[in-house]
TrEMBL record:
Catalytic activity, EC: 4.1.2.13
GO molecular function: fructose-bisphosphate aldolase activity
PANTHER family, A to Z: D-TAGATOSE-1,6-BISPHOSPHATE ALDOLASE (PTHR30304), D-TAGATOSE-1,6-BISPHOSPHATE ALDOLASE SUBUNIT GATY-RELATED (PTHR30304:SF0)
Lineage: Bacteria, Bacillati, Actinomycetota, Actinomycetes, Micrococcales
Organism of this sequence: Pseudarthrobacter enclensis
Protein name, entry field: Fructose-bisphosphate aldolase class II
Length: 287
């Protein structure tokens, strides 16, 4: 299947109630390793880029890496711009070829968020792309975006009005989840996912996935969380793998960068395969 629109990846997942790993990559090695892990697991995967990553690498170079590394790939993959409040960056990424964007206007009043999201959806449609939306900020700071303050939940009526007005493809509710590493076990409002899905039958994006329990993942995915975001877990896997290798390199006084990259790559691939098994997307790659 190869590179596909977000809704072609999430549609089957939502119907069959499995979760697709949506993993925030940050360099060429993590792009390649996440894709390789998805291929080994025969799983669809969503590669996410934060605004920080887009700015640090550059839109053109990042998209060229993506194009090169997905050429001929047989599992369904898509490129998504994560939490982006900047309309200019959204336009830049859509023009470059991103398949979907999360327009994060959660800091704005709901009415203004809704008005601008309608414009973003129209813009994305002109490129054949999809839009994820949110009206409540997900707690926690990630890649210089967000706040540790817990945002107020909107009423179900407000949520449904926003969904109807905007026509977004995926919705990211606040259910007690948070970005980063959980300091205590999160208490999640599982029922809120069910309420939204039963009312509008829209795929839900679960943010703050790193650190949830197996039971929490299974419960939320069964309720309609078809897109499961993972960022912190990849950063920790990549850096801890590198750190362990570098400590050994120092002890041995052997300094070989390709061996370092190979070591980190192996650990990232293992992580992706484990996520695909955990979320039920393994074997769903269509070949």
């Amino acid at each position: 299947m190869g590179v596909a629109p977000l809704n072609e990846i999430l549609g089957p997942a939502f119907q069959a109630r499995y979760g697709v790993p949506a993993i925030n990559i940050f360099n060429d090695l993590t792009i390649e390793a996440v894709l390789a892990g998805a291929v080994e697991a025969n799983s669809p995967v969503i590669l996410q880029t934060s605004v920080k990553t887009v700015r640090s690498i550059g839109t053109r170079v990042l998209f060229d890496m993506w194009s090169s590394l997905t050429r001929g790939i047989e599992v369904p993959v898509t490129l998504h711009l994560d939490h982006c409040p900047d309309r200019g960056v959204i336009t830049e990424c859509l023009k470059a070829g991103w398949n979907s964007v999360l327009f994060d206007a959660s800091s704005l009043p709901v009415e203004e968020n809704q008005r601008q999201t309608i414009e973003v959806v129209a813009e994305a449609r002109s490129y054949g792309a999809q839009v994820e939306g949110e009206i409540e900020a997900i707690t926690g700071v990630e890649d210089d975006h967000g706040s540790d303050e817990v945002s107020q939940q909107q009423s179900l009526e407000t949520v449904l009005g926003y969904l109807d007005a905007t026509g977004i493809d995926v919705f990211a509710p606040s259910i007690g989840n948070a970005h980063g590493t959980y300091k205590t076990a999160p208490v999640l409002d599982m029922g809120r996912v069910t309420e939204i899905v039963e009312a509008r039958n829209i795929p839900i994006a679960l943010h703050g996935g790193s650190g949830l329990s197996q039971e929490q993942f299974a419960d939320l995915i069964s309720r309609g969380c078809a897109k499961v975001n993972i960022s912190t877990a990849l950063k920790e896997t990549y850096m801890q793998s590198s750190l362990a290798f570098l400590k050994q390199a120092e002890r041995d006084n052997k300094w070989d960068p390709p061996s370092l990259f190979k070591h980190a790559r192996t650990d990232v691939i293992t992580m992706v395969k484990e996520l695909a098994e955990q979320f039920g997307s393994a074997g769903k790659g269509g070949h």
